[in-house]
Amino acid sequence: MALKAAGRTSLVDSVVEQLRAQLTDGEWAVGDRIPTEHELAQQLGVGRNTVREAVRVLVHAGLLESRQGNGTFVRSTTDPAAVLRGVRHAGAADVLELRVALEAEAARLAAVRRDTHDLLRLRAALTTLREEGDRDADADLAFHLAVVGATHNATFVEVYRFFSTQVHEVLVEALGDREMPPVDIDAHEALVEAVEAGDPEAAERQARELLRVPMETVATLAEGTGRNR
């Protein structure tokens, strides 16, 4: 894809989008050094300061990496912003299905890898959930983060932390004034017991059971509004 001269409106944004397209279209591979500021400025018909600012935006986004004295290199061709937009535009049933997959695997790993600290944290999160009420979204999220934390997989924790926020936003938009059913405290208790027992199969089964009612609720709402997802 050839670069084209940027328009006069929002020059930095225009350059950012063109460079982002170059990256996601595979014009440059991971590890490649991109053209210099001078070369990009000539191709785009903008000043070097505009290019410099656009590159800085993409560095912060994790797509590019600046190496002092060596130039700017491609760090990733997967745009996190595009992933975020995709999740935000997904249906409630779609994001819940992905949540089931993440939490079921997290529960299975937690049952195998949990230590004493993890179990204490899980029990504390469960106690808070009981005390704060069955509709407290923050308490419920803290509980599930405790389960994911027990996997001792830092990448899993970061992905789930990011994804859980998007799930909440999608569900709020999809449900409108209607509410999800109350949190099943007993089901949460059963999950903790399975993790404590070191039983990965039971932990995975309980994690899926926790989300069965929300999945059914969203499916019923979708049928009522005539939407498939």
TrEMBL record:
Query: Which CDD domains does this one have?
Result: WHTH_GntR
SUPFAM superfamilies, alphabetically?
A: GntR ligand-binding domain-like, Winged helix' DNA-binding domain
Is Metal-binding found in the keyword set? no
Q: Where is the HTH gntR-type domain?
A: 9-77
Record's keyword annotation contains Aminoacyl-tRNA synthetase? no
Q: Could you tell me the keywords of this UniProt record? A: DNA-binding, Transcription, Transcription regulation
Pfam families from the UniProt entry:
FCD (PF07729), GntR (PF00392)
State the name under which the record lists this protein: FadR/GntR family transcriptional regulator
**Species for this entry:** Streptomyces narbonensis
